[in-house]
Design goal:
Layout lengths: L4 E5 L4 E3 L5 E5 L4 E3 L2 E3 L7 E7 L3 E8 L7 E5 L3 E3 L8 E2 L2 E3 L8 E9 L5 E12 L8 H10 L1 H26 L4 E5 L11 H4 L7
Parallel strand pairs: 3-13
Antiparallel strand pairs: 1-14, 2-5, 4-11, 5-10, 6-7, 6-12, 7-8, 9-11, 12-13
Keywords: Disulfide bond, Glycoprotein, Immunoglobulin domain, Membrane, Signal, Transmembrane, Transmembrane helix
Protein name: SCN4B protein
InterPro entries: Ig-like_dom, Ig-like_dom_sf, Ig-like_fold, Ig_sub, Ig_V-set, Myelin_P0-rel
Length: 206
C-alpha cells in the first residue's frame, strides 16, 4: 500500500567486550574477561553463557530483571563472576583464575533475552597467555622531554587531552541509540539499483 508507514521496534540486543577483543595474560595470573550488554526494551529472565573455543561451557547465569543481580546456574570452579546488572551497565564480566598456557584461545560471551522474542547476540575475546610481560622502555622519551624542555611536554599533554575529549564525545554518541525505526512504503528503491552492488559491500571492520 502506497504511503503506508510501518513502525517497528528494533530489537537491538547488543553484546560488547569493549574496544579491543584481545587480552594478554601472564601465566599463573588472574585475568578479567569483560562483557556488557544493552537492550532497548529491558530484559526478563535473560540467560547468559560464556564458552571457551565455542563449545566448552565455562559459565552459565540467569538474570530475572533489572532490579536483581544475576544468579549462577553452573560454572567452572576457576571462573568467577565479577559483573553487576543493577548498576549503570549490564556487566556480565568474569575472571579466569590461575591462567595456564592451555587457557589461550577464544572466549565467547553469549546473551539471550526472552523479552525481545528470544533475541540472541554474542561477542568474542581472544586470550593470549605469555611467560612474561614485555615492559615498554620510556627512558628515551623522558630524556627527550628533559632536553628539549617544556614545549614538547605541553604538546604531549595537549594531545592527550584532545584524545580524552574525543573519546568522551565518541562515548556520548555511542550511547545515543535509537530504538524506533520507521520504514516507508513510498521509498523508491529502483533509483538505487544501478549502484546497489557497490553499496552492498560492508565497510571493513577496524
Amino acid at each position: 500500500l502506497p504511503g503506508l508507514h510501518i513502525f517497528a521496534i528494533a530489537f537491538a540486543l547488543e553484546v560488547s567486550v569493549g574496544k579491543t577483543n584481545t587480552v594478554t595474560a601472564l601465566n599463573n595470573s588472574n585475568v578479567l574477561l569483560p562483557c556488557t550488554f544493552i537492550t532497548c526494551i529491558g530484559f526478563q529472565d535473560l540467560v547468559f553463557t560464556w564458552y571457551f573455543n565455542s563449545t566448552e561451557l565455562i559459565y552459565h547465569g540467569k538474570i530475572k530483571n533489572k532490579g536483581t543481580e544475576p544468579t549462577r546456574i553452573w560454572h567452572n570452579p576457576r571462573v568467577e563472576f565479577v559483573g553487576s546488572t543493577t548498576k549503570k551497565d549490564n556487566n556480565i564480566s568474569i575472571v579466569l583464575n590461575s591462567v595456564e598456557f592451555s587457557d589461550a584461545g577464544k572466549y565467547t560471551c553469549h546473551v539471550k533475552n526472552p523479552k525481545e522474542k528470544n533475541a540472541q547476540h554474542n561477542a568474542t575475546i581472544f586470550l593470549t597467555v605469555v611467560h612474561k610481560m614485555v615492559e615498554t622502555d620510556n627512558t628515551l622519551t623522558l630524556i627527550i622531554v628533559g632536553v628539549v624542555g617544556g614545549l614538547i611536554g605541553l604538546l604531549i599533554l595537549f594531545m592527550l587531552i584532545k584524545r580524552v575529549v574525543l573519546f568522551i564525545i565518541k562515548k556520548t554518541q555511542d550511547g545515543k541509540k535509537e530504538c524506533l525505526v520507521s520504514s516507508s512504503g513510498n521509498d523508491n528503491t529502483e533509483n538505487g539499483l544501478a549502484g546497489s552492488k557497490a553499496e552492498q559491500k560492508a565497510p571493513p571492520k577496524a
